[in-house]
Design a protein that fits this description.
The protein is of the alpha/beta class and 154 residues long. It has helices spanning 20-50, 59-69, 103-115, 129-134, 149-153; strands at residues 4-6, 13-15, 79-84, 93-94, 100-101, 118-123, 140-141. The longest helix has 31 residues, at 20-50.
Length: 154
């Protein structure tokens, strides 16, 4: 059964889906649905931001790690421990004062700033990178490493 709208001036019948009233109602409903989705996402992000991210290893090691990474300590930011072998310029190296610098260092610091992490860079020997990740000593590794079959198995 089709629903028609009768125009009182011309006495013509128009299917409801072709009327201006339907188009306005449909557009309003789409705007309301989009607003609801946006508000839901904003609420989800707000709740996710309220979640506590523990440092996991205590304040003393976090303070010493932040001094090594060149960042000030932030009591409310979760800590992201990153292992690098700082001997591969221009990606990972040390400046004259012994502070980490390079492309990978800048990348992880920008990542931490964008996502609200305090980044602690730990200079780790090449052979200790994967074991430090496996044992939970660090959260991630950034160290100019290629994928091999042996590393995929690890």
């Amino acid at each position: 059964m089709k629903v028609y709208r009768e125009d009182p001036r011309t006495r013509t019948r128009t299917p409801w889906l072709k009327t201006r009233a339907w188009r306005v109602a449909h557009k309003t409903a789409r705007k309301a649905a989009l607003l609801l989705v946006c508000l839901s996402l904003a609420g989800a992000f707000a709740l996710a931001g309220c979640g506590g991210g523990g440092t996991g290893a205590g304040a003393d090691s976090a303070a010493s790690g932040s001094a090594a990474s060149g960042l000030g300590s932030s009591a409310s930011a979760p800590v992201l421990r990153v292992a690098m072998e700082l001997a591969y310029p221009p990606f990972e190296t040390k400046d004259d004062a012994g502070n980490p610098e390079g492309i990978s260092v800048d990348f992880i610091r920008d990542f931490g700033e964008a996502y609200g992490y305090e980044v602690i860079i730990e200079n780790t020997a090449w052979d200790g990178l994967i074991p430090s990740l496996q044992t939970g000593k660090v959260d991630c590794i950034i160290s100019s490493m290629t994928i091999t079959e042996e590393r995929e198995e690890a």
